[in-house]
Amino acid sequence: MAARRVAITGLGIISPLGLNLTENWNSLRAGRCAIGPIESVDCATLRFQNGAEVRGYDPLEHFEGGKDAQIDRFAQFSVVAAREALRDSGLEFTPALREQTAVICGSSVGGQMAIEMGYQDLYLKNRGRVHPLTIPKTMSNAGASHIAMDLGLSGPAYTVSTACSSANHAIGQAFHMVRGGHVEMAVTGGSEANFAFGFLKAWEAMRVIAPDTCRPFSKDRRGLILGEGGAILILEPFEAAKARGAKIYAEICGFAMTSDAHHLTQPTVEGPSRAMRGALRDGGLAPEEIGYINAHGTGTPGNDPVETRAIRAVFCKHANKVAVSSTKSMHGHALGAAGALEAVATILALHHGELPPTVNYTEPDPECDLDYIPNQTRAVQVEAAISNSFAFGGLNAVLAFRAAH
């Protein structure tokens, strides 16, 4: 079968920026920073107190009959986002289509809330046993499995866990499956819920969390800020989407992944550069066609200059003309879900002709010398964009998108 163009026809998202797609886009456009004091955990003994939490979320609005107690928070986010994405797509499932729909999700750490509760039962409360659903709630594939059960989808279903590149890896593989004719549709993205005290203590030990806020590419940046959430994309063949009169947000056209083979936590220029070049090549895009890059942009002293150099290595003179932003400055770093939240931001930027900013930007850094769309959304229609995810372990995954025509 010849390679097929792949359309994005449905989006669903729950994040610190809002509980649905409309709220998220309004927050992105407004440059609203959702970083603030962590409310779900007592941070008195932590070296940091700020995070980007999903606020105002009530699981009982989405899960009845006590089912919320059977599903960890991260997997709940997957299901909530998938339901919205499917509604948004307007798709009607036939029995055959259910069997030909893949569910591919990304999550870095899975059910941290269930793990935390189990350890509390064992070591703090001395109960001698844990909740009987601890294993099903902690497993990283719970998000994908619950989506498949909730929507009645019986095609391939699995989870990718590659740290902060998890969602981009998942979306990229789903794209290739639809493009290659292996499935007729894909429900894909990622989710994470990591505000558990033990997990926060582990990040504290890394010494990479900012004490105040996330300032990607700004000279006074001091580290990343943790976030959470979930986002899902509906992918289907472009011609099939047109034939049914679907709204097409954008076309996903390229994907590439590389390994630095260098260091567990220190990135290189070469690995991300090869991933960006590979995504452009896979999408049949020239560097000059890219008008926007949603950067990995963690706000750490080490990541941002390396990503800047990698972008310059790929785009050469055009690097001065391409707009770059890190939406982590608003929604925090959602680890395995980061690529999904950022893919939605990139797709909406293409669809609406507005590029989200890098907020909290205060001071240029000579080592970070690109156009980072500081603090204010920019109204400009671009024809193509890429979204970068670069993970611990040196695992790089880049997605390429075209405006829908």
Describe the protein.
This protein has 405 residues and is α/β, with parallel strands linked by helices. The protein has 2 domains: 6-243, Peroxisomal Thiolase, Chain A, domain 1 (3-Layer(aba) Sandwich), CATH 3.40.47.10; 252-403, Thiolase/Chalcone synthase (Peroxisomal Thiolase, Chain A, domain 1). The protein is built from 13 helices and 14 strands. The strands form 3 sheets. The chain has a 10-stranded mixed beta sheet with strand order 5-4-6-7-1-8-14-13-9-10, with helices on both faces. Strands 2-3 form a two-stranded antiparallel ribbon. It has a two-stranded antiparallel ribbon with strand order 11-12. Helix 2 (73-89) crosses helix 6. The longest helix has 17 residues, at 73-89. The relative contact order is 0.19.
Report the CATH architecture of the largest domain.
Answer: 3-Layer(aba) Sandwich
Could you give the distance between the termini? Answer: 23 Å
Number of strands: 14
**In what order do the strands lie side by side in the largest sheet?**
5-4-6-7-1-8-14-13-9-10
Instruction: List unreliable stretches of 5+ residues.
Output: none
* CATH hierarchy class name of the largest domain: Alpha Beta
* Tally of separate domains: 2
